[in-house]
Design a protein that fits this description.
This protein has 111 residues and is an alpha/beta fold. It is built from 2 helices and 6 strands, in the order E-H-E-E-H-E-E-E. Strand 2 (35-38) and strand 3 (45-49) form a beta hairpin.
Length: 111
C-alpha cells in the first residue's frame, strides 16, 4: 500500500519494484485504468491507483482478492479503501521534503 500526496513518487517507487518483479516492464500510472498488469517476471505485479475512485473504494468489485492470490499488488491511494488495507499489507508512506528529496516510512503488519 502506497500513501503520499500527488507527485510524491508513488509510481516511481513502483517502477523500482517492477525492475525486480517484472524486469523490462514500462511502468506508468494506472490513474485511468485502475490497475496495470506487469507479467514479465515469474510472479505478476499488479499496480492499482484508487485516486479516481475516491473514498470508500471497494476493490472486491474488481476482483482484488484474485489479484492478491496470483501476484504482488501495489496500491496507490490505499487510504481510499472502503474496508482498509488487508491485514498482511505493508504500507509505504512517501512524503516530499524539498526538491528531489523524500521521507519514506515503511510500516510492516503486526506479526
Amino acid at each position: 500500500m502506497l500513501e503520499g500526496p500527488l507527485g510524491a513518487g508513488k509510481t516511481a517507487f513502483t517502477r523500482g519494484l517492477a525492475s525486480v518483479f517484472s524486469p523490462g516492464s514500462r511502468v506508468k500510472s494506472p490513474s485511468f485504468t485502475i490497475v496495470n498488469e506487469y507479467r514479465m517476471g515469474k510472479t505478476p505485479l499488479f499496480h492499482f491507483d484508487l485516486y479516481r475512485l475516491g473514498e470508500g473504494s471497494d476493490l472486491e468489485d474488481i476482483g482484488f482478492r484474485e489479484y492478491v492470490e496470483s501476484g504482488h499488488c501495489v496500491v496507490e491511494w490505499s487510504e481510499y479503501l472502503a474496508h482498509g488495507a488487508p491485514e498482511e499489507a505493508v504500507t509505504v508512506k512517501i512524503e516530499p521534503e524539498g526538491e528531489g528529496s523524500r521521507n519514506i516510512e515503511i510500516i510492516y503488519p503486526d506479526r
